[in-house]
Design brief:
Blueprint lengths: L3 E14 L16 E4 L3 E15 L3 E5 L6 H8 L7 E7 L2 E3 L13 H11 L7 H12 L14 H10 L8 E5 L7 H17 L2 E5 L3 H7 L2 E6 L2 E7 H15 L1
Parallel strand pairs: 4-8, 4-9, 6-7, 7-8
Antiparallel strand pairs: 1-3, 1-5, 2-3, 9-10
């Protein structure tokens, strides 16, 4: 089955109860989504009337300033966030890379956490043991893999989470920024895992501020501004317009 994402006139808002001087919240700033002040609530218009059609082979990058709606759109494409209006249809297995570290249980060992992540990601029961050993080897944690996560340093926990990338499988790969490991000894491995994931996926949607990464891995660039699509087209063309726009704002 071919993978696809069909979004038509989709809108997403977050709501907050008004407090104090909330009436001033409608003032325009240089970042963030539009804020609509109601009688009792503030509406943060994260996405507005987004239409997008993606099919097998598409490699799409997202750009936009903070609060432009990139993360919200990624969550919508991952099926992790409901839309308030419009329609969305997703065909294919979705792998949101930004969720790798979620659900890690500090009182369980690296091994047990890996086994649970295997189950969560749909790894066949017969392949869990082999996948777990592969994660252990990639992480380089040695005996610590058998100890509770709470005994790990921040770097050790990061090593485990990065190594869980080996378990990711899916038709639609969603990435919120390219992951770079602080530890140079694992950075090459992490980059290779990400490259393999991208090449094996049917559809890629990636948010990044890096022109080099966008040019290397995507062919189409979608520019979001205040929850709306400002431009969409070849990476070089849209990124050039985005840079000019950013320079005028600066």
């Amino acid at each position: 089955m071919s993978a696809s994402i069909e979004i038509e006139n989709a809108s997403v808002s977050y709501f907050m109860r008004k407090v104090g001087t909330s009436d001033k919240a409608s003032e325009k700033g240089s970042v963030g989504a539009q804020i609509v002040v109601g009688k009792r609530y503030l509406e943060i218009a994260a996405l507005r009337n987004i239409s997008l059609s993606l099919k097998t082979g598409d490699r799409v990058g997202l750009i936009g300033i903070n609060g432009s709606g990139k993360s919200t759109l990624l969550k919508v494409c991952a099926g992790a966030l409901a839309i308030q209006s419009g329609s969305i249809e997703i065909k294919g297995m979705v792998s949101p890379q930004f969720a790798l570290g979620s659900g890690i249980k500090p009182n369980l060992s690296g091994r047990r956490n890996t086994e649970l992540k295997c189950l969560y990601m749909g790894t066949p029961q017969s392949k869990i043991a082999a996948a777990t050993e592969e994660v252990k080897e990639l992480s380089g944690l040695g005996g610590y893999f058998e100890l509770p996560i709470r005994s790990y340093s921040a770097g050790m926990r990061s090593r485990l989470v990065m190594s869980l990338m080996r378990l990711v499988r899916g038709d639609i790969l969603i990435m919120d920024e390219w992951i770079s490991a602080a530890d140079a000894s694992v950075n090459k491995t992490v980059s290779k895992l990400q490259s393999d994931l991208i090449e094996s996926s049917s559809i890629l949607i990636m948010a990044s501020h890096s022109q080099r990464i966008l040019e290397d891995w995507t062919t189409t660039l979608l520019w979001l501004d205040r929850g709306e699509i400002k431009a969409m087209g070849p990476v070089a063309d849209v990124y050039a317009d985005y840079k000019k726009w950013m320079n005028t704002k600066a």
